[in-house]
Design brief:
CATH class of the domain at 37-121: Alpha Beta
CATH architecture of the domain at 37-121: Alpha-Beta Complex
CATH superfamily of the domain at 37-121: tt1808, chain A
Largest sheet: 4 strands, antiparallel
Number of helices: 3
Radius of gyration: 15 Å
Distance between the termini: 37 Å
Helix content: 25-40%
Strand content: 15-25%
Structural class: alpha+beta
Strand order of the largest sheet: 2-1-5-4
Order of helices and strands: HEEHEEEEEH
Amino acid sequence: MASLPTPHLAFDEYIALERRTGSKYEFRNGDIRAMAEASPAHSLMEANLIAALAPQLADSGCRVYAASLRILIEASELYTYPDISIVCGPLLLGSGMSATNPKAVIEVLAPSTRRYDDVATGCRGEDAERDPDQP
């Protein structure tokens, strides 16, 4: 069965959709993608990572944010809600109250979404060298 095409939205329409539905979507160049709900195992991994990272960063001027913080990955013009974001210094908010200065973005990968997450965030797998200009 063919899937229905997703609507092409202006940024303001995307923000309005999230407010109206209470759901989270990724947004890039007018295209939206509904964010999947996390499994209990996924949620536990997120919580354990946040619990481990927060004390390590306590005196560094960096803060750990959970998946409710929307960020803009400027290099790919992607607005998304990563599992965990780390911001150092003041939190800078841009369009749609999206954080524009994450220093690190962490995704707990599931087999069903790993390929998409790698492509969407600009990651190229565990062993690939990272571009230092990419968040």
